[in-house]
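input
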Amino acid sequence: MLQIYKFIVDKKTKGRSFILFFCLMLATTVSLAQNGAKITIKKNSISVIEALKEVEKQSGMSVGYNDSQLKNKPAITLNIEAASLENALAQILKGTGFTYQLKEKYIMIIPEQKKERSEHQSGRHCRRISQTSTGTS
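output
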């Protein structure tokens, strides 16, 4: 009788362990799905700030930005349907002079870095001019 009881308890423990493992895997899948959120915004004449608030709502992530820098940006028309977070942010910030950084559960809106290229990097090369003088000393 004792052996049967140990066998039953052992099976229950294995079953509980499997259920716990399954629940943990399911919870991990749900949290990963939030990072792959699909964004849908279809609006005419929406401000960049309103669009970012909509992204915040749909993605569940916090969006940080400087309100005073974005409030004077012109209204935009968005037709985003089931786009990835990255694509939606790229469309919203296009032409604003701003870009984004993703860090854990935060989206930070930051100014784009100006690309200053030296003349050598831009393909312009300086030519060396040498002067030969012929004369008598």
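quick obs: Residues 29-34, 117-122 have pLDDT under 50 and may be disordered.
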